[in-house]
Specification:
GO terms for molecular function: metal ion binding. Pfam families: MDMPI_N. This is Mycothiol-dependent maleylpyruvate isomerase metal-binding domain-containing protein. InterPro entries: DinB/YfiT-like (IPR034660), Maleyloyr_isom (IPR017517), MDMPI_metal-binding (IPR024344). The protein is 56% helix and 5% strand. With 208 residues, it is mainly alpha-helical. It has a three-stranded mixed β-sheet. Helix 3 crosses helix 5, helix 3 packs antiparallel against helix 7 and helix 8 packs parallel to helix 10.
Length: 208
């Protein structure tokens, strides 16, 4: 179990590590589609930078403009960061890596989940190998399958037993879904493109 201080240190390390990767990208790679629907690599990077440059009250204003639609407000915020900071994403992610932002009521596991999962969203389509230390992946998996994560990630509430094949982690009851910890993280958070990488008699429930 990681303490809050250890989790914040892990977040900072993940941000710096991803910044180092982003610093190597070509213009075409920045424009490459990520695992996040229609978002490009640049969009995902901007989303990760957003809480480092935009105060929480500003997001509240965007929520009002979006009439309470979180996804729409999130997209508006991301577009704003691309417009205002599109050439600074690497330096902002690196220089402000130690910022201890947490969404209200979520705790540090939420931003750790954000950076770990979105780093995979960026790196996998580009063919870059990336994986976080096991203790961080356990925190993320516990978060996305726990009570705080279920309202954000539909698949985390699926009536299946998740089993990681590369670390000692499992959760839930029912038909089994097996895969690497990274693949489970992506599947639980709704990345349908990884379903073919999973095995077990519960996979059909995710496809449905």
């Amino acid at each position: 179990m990681m303490s809050d201080d250890e989790t914040f240190e892990a977040i900072a390390d993940e941000r710096r590590s991803l910044a180092n990767t982003l610093a190597t990208l070509t213009p075409a790679q920045w424009d490459h589609t990520s695992l996040c629907g229609e978002w490009t690599v640049r969009d995902v990077a901007a989303h990760l930078v957003a809480p480092l440059v935009i105060p929480i009250w500003r997001f509240g204003v965007l929520m009002l403009r979006a009439r309470g639609n979180f996804d729409e407000a999130n997209k508006m915020m991301t577009d704003m960061v691309v417009r205002q900071h599109g050439t600074e994403l690497v330096s902002l992610l690196r220089d402000r890596a130690d910022k201890r932002f947490t969404p209200p009521g979520r705790g540090p596991a939420a931003p750790l989940t954000d950076i770990v999962v979105h780093a995979l969203d960026i790196c996998r389509p580009l063919g870059f190998a990336r994986s976080s230390p096991d203790d961080r992946r356990v925190v993320v998996l516990d978060y996305v399958t726990g009570l705080r994560g279920r309202d954000a990630f539909t698949h985390s509430a699926a009536a299946v037993r998740w089993e990681a094949t590369d670390i000692d982690w499992r959760h839930g009851d029912g038909p089994t879904v097996r895969g690497t910890a990274d693949t489970l993280m992506l599947a639980i958070t709704g990345r349908r493109s990884v379903i073919d990488e999973l095995s077990g008699d519960g996979v059909s429930l995710l496809g449905a």
